[in-house]
Amino acid sequence: MSDLSVFTITKRWPAKYPDRLQLYSLPTPNGVKVSVMLEETGLAYEAHLVDFNKDDQKTPEFLSLNPNGKIPAILDPDGPGGQPLGLFESGAILQYLAEKSGKLLPADAARRWETIQWVHFQMGGIGPMFGQVGFFHKFAGKEFADKRPRERYVAESKRLLGVMETRLAGRSWFMDDDYTIADISMLGWVRNLIGFYGARELVGFDDFGNVSAWLDRGLARPAVQRGLEIPKRP
After folding, report:
1. Is residue 127 part of a domain?
2. pLDDT tens digits for 51-96?
3. Are 45 and 21 in contact (CB under 8 A)?
4. Do the beta carbons of residue 180 and residue 117 sit within 8 Å?
5. Of 66, 83, 103, which residue sits at a domain end?
6. Contact at 8 Å (CB) between 50 and 24?
7. How many helices (DSSP H) and strands (DSSP E) are in the chain?
8. Tens of pLDDT along 115-147?
9. What's the CATH number where 59 sits?
10. Do 73 and 162 belong to one domain?
């Protein structure tokens, strides 16, 4: 077993169980992708809270693992070849954990890449656009006199919801009957858009019946319910 103490991040967040995968995160839409994935796969892990209120993500210890200063990040003591591996970027972590566990990513090559493309759809579209709606509707942006930025991001979020709506027509999940990392990547963001961000009416969410039904199915999964609360907020 690798000695995780050689990794600078463990000086701030010591590993109580160094044989387990270490998760450094916060239950945000990006953070819960990985905690949900870990709960779904059953991989043994230890969760560490990265407290934004304390600027934990800006500390040298955290930056030693993720120089971009964003959550989530992981440290796997049993990476490829039995060597420890640190990873950041939630989409990359989802794919890594799927391949490590052999779960939630189709084995068929064509379906595998089709799944991955939907993860990239979330990374490049859903996350950035929904996040901007949150900024301009709930946070500091709501004080801006110029409403054109908000209108732009609301319109783009509606368009993306429309893409999701079309894809989910006649499907339970993004990959038909197979629940995958594509679904996991998006559940937290859609939940946040209509919940924490309070933008349900703003984006006309109730017009997207397929998306709404998909979200309900996802949120009903026990592993999703657990993952949405990991790590516990202070």
Report:
1. yes
2. 999 999 999 999 999 999 999 999 999 999 999 999 999 999 999 9
3. yes
4. no
5. 103
6. yes
7. 10, 4
8. 999 999 999 999 999 999 999 999 988 889 999
9. 3.40.30.10
10. no
